[in-house]
């Protein structure tokens, strides 16, 4: 008896993975690959689109030969802010430009002079001005720097939809990609921004297809229900949206710590935009207010500084237990130094602290995390304001840091704080998004493991 599964391609900047999930959303097969980056015509690093395309077909061919699984559906999740420009025959016309590619200053100035100030455009599109990270600006650049190529472009697809197109042959746009710091979508009008019409870009953007619907597609003589693909940040939120109905915030942690509030639809204020807030559009089409903090990077750098000063291995911080008494003493000692300003600094004040003022590495590390929590609580509070949030779920690297989790619980005493654990949240979200089309069983309610952190007790398991 073959096991019914869904195949999900999960494409990150570093790792490209293929997962098979069974009907209980357990991973029954996993394959990972890395590709060497290539260079675009300017010598900037970029994704190898040919390798990516071939890997989709090779990987599918490989799993189809395993006489154990019955693939019912296929979906995709990839990083955002990356466009593929296709000609009349569906062939890519350019490299897959990197969203970190420097943006020409003169072109940026022309854009804002023509269409409105950076602040105005940011407010209307819920996208802080970020150069190439705003994928709409990438298309604008092609129009003015490569007009001959622009004329040949028939379809512009974000990367998830290009991956889907490889299987379906269809051209669609997806709201989770368009609605994520692209500067393309006017959140007030719920339509493309006026500048997209003024520059005649709309005709190159295919029709919008629902992220929870499927296309019947044939591959190697068999038909599969195929999703249109999702932006990875939106995909990671889906398991939480289907498992929890009362208002929550998801704090997704890693190098960046991103607070996501699907229950706050109020327009972004100028202060929120200045504090690196933005809005996503979730797979069901509703806005998700978000705030970003570069906290994971800071924790890593400052942990190394502490380790070097006290001559210890930085690895000890990964499993350092929370000392409630020490945390209380440090809070009292530095109570007059907590930061509170209209515009949040990019980093905590720990970088300016003299490490010789701490007795040992344990004391210094507790204060480092406390300083980061001081900023994190303000960043997260920005997107909680005006919504009745009951729970905060923390996933990613910081969810395993008991000092961070306990101090976060103390920073939000009126809200339940949980560490969440889930295998491959992004890929799982892409699978769950089209659950109704391929899975004969009810959605399981145990795909997310939670650990509750109390204000009064260190940890309740």
Automatic annotation (TrEMBL):
Domain Carbohydrate kinase FGGY N-terminal: 6-217
GO cellular-component term (any): cytosol
Domain of life: Bacteria
PANTHER family, per the entry: SUGAR KINASE, XYLULOSE KINASE
Higher taxonomy: Bacteria, Pseudomonadati, Bacteroidota, Sphingobacteriia, Sphingobacteriales
Keyword Iron-sulfur included in the entry's annotation: no
Protein name, UniProt field: Carbohydrate kinase
Domain Carbohydrate kinase FGGY C-terminal: 246-437
GO BP, one annotated term: xylulose metabolic process
The UniProt record lists the keyword 4Fe-4S: no
Positions in coiled-coil regions: none
Recorded GO MF terms: D-xylulokinase activity
InterPro entries: ATPase_NBD, FGGY_C_2, FGGY_N
Keywords, in A-Z order: Kinase, Transferase
Protein family according to the UniProt entry: Belongs to the FGGY kinase family.
SUPFAM superfamilies, A to Z: Actin-like ATPase domain
């Amino acid at each position: 008896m073959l096991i019914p599964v869904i195949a999900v391609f999960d494409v990150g900047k570093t790792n490209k993975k293929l997962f098979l999930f069974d009907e209980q959303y357990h991973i029954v097969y996993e394959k990972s690959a890395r590709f060497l980056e290539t260079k675009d015509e300017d010598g900037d690093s970029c994704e190898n689109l040919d390798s990516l395309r071939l890997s989709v077909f090779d990987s599918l061919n490989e799993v189809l030969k395993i006489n154990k699984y019955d693939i019912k559906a296929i979906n995709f999740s990839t990083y955002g802010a990356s466009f593929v420009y296709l000609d009349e025959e569906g062939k890519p016309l350019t490299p897959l430009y990197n969203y970190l590619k420097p943006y020409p200053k003169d072109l940026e100035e022309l854009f804002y002079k023509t269409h409105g100030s950076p602040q105005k455009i940011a407010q209307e599109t819920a996208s802080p001005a970020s150069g190439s990270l705003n994928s709409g600006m990438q298309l604008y650049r092609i129009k003015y720097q490569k007009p001959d190529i622009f004329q040949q472009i028939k379809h512009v697809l974000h990367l998830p939809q290009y991956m889907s197109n490889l299987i379906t042959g269809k051209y669609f746009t997806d709201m989770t990609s368009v609605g994520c710091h692209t500067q393309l979508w006017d959140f007030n009008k719920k339509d493309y921004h006026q500048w997209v019409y003024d520059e005649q870009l709309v005709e190159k953007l295919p029709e919008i297809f629902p992220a929870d619907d499927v296309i019947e597609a044939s591959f190697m003589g068999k038909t599969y229900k195929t999703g249109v693909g999702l932006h990875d940040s939106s995909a990671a939120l889906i398991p939480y949206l289907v498992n929890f109905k009362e208002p929550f915030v998801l704090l997704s942690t890693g190098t960046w710590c991103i607070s996501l509030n699907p229950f706050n639809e109020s327009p972004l204020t100028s202060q929120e935009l200045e504090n690196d807030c933005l809005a996503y559009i979730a797979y069901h089409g509703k806005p998700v207010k978000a705030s970003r903090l570069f906290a994971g990077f800071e924790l890593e750098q400052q942990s190394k500084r502490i380790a070097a000063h006290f001559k210890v291995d930085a690895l000890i911080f990964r499993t350092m237990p929370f000392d409630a008494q020490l945390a209380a003493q440090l809070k009292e000692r530095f109570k007059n130094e907590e930061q509170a300003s209209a515009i949040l600094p990019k980093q905590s004040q720990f970088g300016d602290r003299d490490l010789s003022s701490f007795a040992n590495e344990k004391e210094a590390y507790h204060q480092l995390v406390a300083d980061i929590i001081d900023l994190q609580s303000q960043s997260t509070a920005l997107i909680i304001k005006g919504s009745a949030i009951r729970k905060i779920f923390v996933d990613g690297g910081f969810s395993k840091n008991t000092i961070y989790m306990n101090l976060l619980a103390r920073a939000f005493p009126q809200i339940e704080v949980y560490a969440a654990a889930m295998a491959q949240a992004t890929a799982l979200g892409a699978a769950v998004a089209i659950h109704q089309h391929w899975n004969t069983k009810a959605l399981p309610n145990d795909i997310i493991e939670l650990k509750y952190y109390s204000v009064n007790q260190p940890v309740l398991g």
